[in-house]
Amino acid sequence: MKLQEIVDLLEAEVVTNKELVPTIEIHSACGSDMMSDVLAYVSDQGLLLTGLCNPQVIRTAEMMDITCVAFVRGKRPDDMVKSLAQSKGIVILETKKQMYQACGILYTHGLDAKQ
Amino acid sequence: MTSIKQSYIVDGNDFISCGHASEAVKRTLKELGMPSDLIRRVAIAMYEGEINMVIHAEGGVADVEIFSDGVKIYLRDHGKGIADIEQAMQEGFSTATDDIRELGFGAGMGLPNMKKYADEMEIDTEIGVGTTVYLGFKVR
User: Fold this and answer.
1) Which chain A residues are within 8 Å of B107, Cβ to Cβ?
2) Which domain holds residue B84?
């Protein structure tokens, strides 16, 4: 699924690396507020949906080669989080949708959770 | 065999910048053209180690040695030590506080995860003295 389609489906705002959005294709996603779980179970996911909003979310994404982090429930990352993501080439999205809702929308549109 | 040695101080009082060392090692391995599978395994396991050092041991030192066919990492801290290694290796067991869980860690996956991604792992620990975790990775 094209990242632009995800932006549209989640009615999200693109906060960092806007110019990369048209170039990114997402094949699978995961949703978690526990970075420990992301590090333990996730493989080759392009998108992380989370309600956790601290710099370690971006570091976790970087270690896992995750290209896009979507903050759900209207969470707004601070400048430090945004600047870290910007420098790492990670796209940040903000959506007002809740985690369950956001995951459900993407899943029903064909975005799977590859394990 | 020639190797590249790197040493990083992991600041135990700085949760925000935790991950610096893993990030630097990941970058070096990329520059050296090491296989992406190895890079990812090293980055994740070392990052888990860094997180552990910050949340459980007030920081420490990470010594990294890179060979053409693998990577060796020694994570040394002077924290309180691990009372029961077998228990600590169980998925889901954690002594982390609620404060740490609110930051997204402390699910009891750190050590099991490090073991999962490394090819070799040894833990040397003494109560009140500290812990050294050795992680060995081979190009597969």
Assistant:
1) 34, 36-37, 40
2) 4-138
B113–A52: do the CB atoms touch at under 8 Å? no
ipTM score for this prediction = 0.86
Q: Are A106 and A9 in contact (CB under 8 A)?
A: yes
With CA atoms as reference, the chain A residue closest to B109 would be A36
> At the fourth CATH level, which superfamily is domain A3-108?
HprK N-terminal domain-like (3.40.1390.20)
Domain range summary for chain A, segments of one domain joined by +: 3-108
Q: H helices of B4-123, where?
A: 20-31, 36-57, 85-88, 98-102, 110-117
| Cα–Cα distance for residue pair B117/B122, rounded to 1 Å | 13
pLDDT tens digit sequence for A8-65: 999 999 999 999 999 999 999 999 999 988 998 777 779 999 999 999 999 999 999 9
